[in-house]
Amino acid sequence: MRIGIFDPYLDDLGGGEKYMLTIASCLSKDHDVSLFWDNKDDLSLVSNRFGIDLSRVSLTKNIFSPSVSLPARILKSKKYDAIIVLSDGSIPFVFSKLFLHFQQPIPHVSPNFKTKRKLSRVKKIFCNSYFTKSYIDKELGVDSVVLYPPVNLHPKKVKKENIILHVGKFRTRGLGDDFKKQGFMIETFKKMAENVSGWRFVLAVSIHERDKEAFEKLQESAEGFPIEFLLNKSNKELWNIYSKAKIYWHASGFGENLEEHPELAEHFGISTVEAMGAGAVPVVISAGGQKEIVEEEKNGFLWNTQEEFIEKTKKLIADEKLWSKLSKAAKEKAEAFSGDRFCEEIQKLISNF
């Protein structure tokens, strides 16, 4: 089969890009796969960041660019047996089998007649979590499938250190300021540090040049405390810190009206799974896709308030036996999301149509 793949955010450094590029890599083993994108440097940057093999994937002119007319797009799309699109809520019109992927809820969408016609041409919609699926199905009136993100576990046998870790993209545009709530976590650690010594908070973040000024202010807020920043590290480098960390923090969605804006919660939580795979015990907000990963007091902790956040973290710090038990369970849970599962599932999804 000849397959085309389009991610409108390919120059970003998020989980959605890792997801789509992994699809391209997986399918290229048995199919002729092309990515619709115009800047080769963007592709190299993102593929190197995530360590994904795209040697069998070609880059072709982006037929979804605003500069390409609808007739031209339709004509070029005929050359493909299937096209997979990461949707931002829109549904492109193409003359090939169309598969749509959603990485986040798209709330308050009422499909009009035109949208319904486009939906009728979609072979299948797939989501990254049941959290995302619940909103997509309700809003679009469909029955999507869940294909959990690709998670490759590479824990290293190194001695654990008293590290609380957070991994995530620093973003001030798109889905709200400081989407991952790194600022809130810094303030939480500073508050907790008054009664806890010998621990440090490490934030491994990816950052675009456009957010550099805002990020520098975030760094300034951490001065004088045992807080460190690791910037734009590769997957290989991240595993070094994952393997050393004892506790993992995540707070996306805190303080937001998630009933009105569910997209502000974490849609799945790849970094949470990666941290668990390395034995770090998650202490994460009880919202979004995190609840599909973390089971309260079985392989980690879920929280709703800052007080609860601090209390549960301190409980782990004070009880080495409890930490060891949850760390072992966290590793076992992470294994369910790893291996060749993702490639097998996407191959099956495409071949069934």
Short note summarizing the structure:
The longest helix is centred in the last third of the chain and has 16 residues. With 353 residues, this protein is of the alpha/beta class.
Number of helices: 12
Sheet with the most strands, sense and barrel status: 7 strands, parallel
Structural class by sheet pairing and helices = alpha/beta
Number of strands: 13
Assign a percent range to the helix content: 25-40%
Our estimate of the beta-strand percent is: 15-25%
Q: How are strands sequenced across the largest beta sheet?
A: 3-2-1-4-5-6-7
Helix and strand element order: EHEHEHEEHEHEEHEHEHEHEEHHH
Based on CA atoms alone, the radius of gyration comes out at: 21 Å
**How many angstroms separate the termini?**
11 Å
Low-confidence stretches: none
Mean pLDDT: 92
Overall geometry: elongated
